């Protein structure tokens, strides 16, 4: 479907053509007719003036004038014939023709005089018998009329072009609010379903804004229902899974040796289900957060990382993976500790799952750019290419990796929470371990105010 701008331009072009073309034809025809009538009137008036002047003069032989000044070359005297006579005697003629032929010139109509066909207008004074005949080339009125009409048509065409350009500019300028409205909708993130400001929209687009707001409200309702369903289902599944795991672990010392592998499979399945439920709860929580204008709180990133890593040591020991924390004594940052805990836990869990067995995972806290602190997680697994790293942030995306027991939610949770916190997640080139190397860049906290309390008295 063509754009509204082009449709308006085409329709206005047809409308202008439908109005201006007939109007131009009428204007040209009217100008030509008016000029022709004016030409004849001027010719008749000139003849009357000549007659009035000639009637007062005595009879004299024909004399051709000799101009003192050179006349305008654009004015051709040969285009006009003037014959003045009195009682059959030639007084004046503008052409050197035999007197008999000049005296025989009719008063009105068309006549071949010399080499030209003339259109004649004549007047006669009955009192003195003086007669004046003025003749012009028969095509002169037509050519002059066409010349004037062509000039008018040129002006009309120029005016039409100027009007078309003005309308094009006006349409483009008038449709700018539509483009701004489209940009406002297009620049929204896929997660922003807040209603559009209908009061700011042009009146012609308020209906569209209302329809979009209704659509986004329905989408938000569907997403909320889906999120609530996942959250409720995860909560409902957590309790029976915890009970099953407790019962299975209670049987650990009572099982015969040949049953132990099956017992380990059951325990691993419950652990995996528990992690999946925890990740689903993290997903629903990340989707419901609104961190606009929330800078977070001041925390010591070193102590924070120590507490998160310590909770993951048992799982790492089961895979014979050593977790190392390399950091300074302290590093204060501004962040949301509850969300950063989910991010760091998922990054370290992902590193442990895909590290070698036995293997290593290194968590590093180091100063980055001015005003920033970097949190790095590196493993000795197979790593990810740049393209695979981008795809790994999609949900349930494991990229065909066979290691680990995840379902592909960990990095998607990391990406979503970091996006909401405004924390960049970058893939660095493999370091000393040779595996995946991920960096979080956190804003460093300003130093606390130097305050001192003194007591007197």
Tell me the strand percentage band.
Answer: 15-25%
Second rung of CATH, namely the architecture of the largest domain: 2-Layer Sandwich
Number of helices, where a helix is a run of at least 4 consecutive DSSP H or I residues: 10
Order of helices and strands: HEEHEEEHHHHEHEEHEEHHEE
Question: Looking at the structure, what is the overall shape?
Answer: rod-shaped
For the record, give the distance between the C-alpha atoms at the N and C termini, rounded to a whole number: 86 Å
- Estimate the helix proportion, in percent: 40-55%
The CATH homologous superfamily of the largest domain: Histidine kinase-like ATPase, C-terminal domain
Enzyme class: transferase
Subcellular location: Membrane
Catalytic activity: ATP + protein L-histidine = ADP + protein N-phospho-L-histidine
GO molecular function, one term: phosphorelay sensor kinase activity
Topology:
Layout: H1 4-55, E1 80-86, E2 89-93, H2 99-103, E3 109-113, E4 116-125, E5 130-137, H3 140-174, H4 176-186, H5 206-250, H6 260-287, E6 297-300, H7 301-318, E7 321-326, E8 332-335, H8 337-354, E9 359-367, E10 372-379, H9 386-391, H10 410-421, E11 425-428, E12 437-443
Parallel strand pairs: 7-9
Antiparallel strand pairs: 1-2, 1-5, 3-4, 4-5, 6-8, 9-10, 10-12, 11-12
Helix pairs in contact: 1-3, 5-6, 6-10, 7-8, 8-10
GO molecular function: phosphorelay sensor kinase activity
Catalytic activity: ATP + protein L-histidine = ADP + protein N-phospho-L-histidine
Subcellular location: Membrane
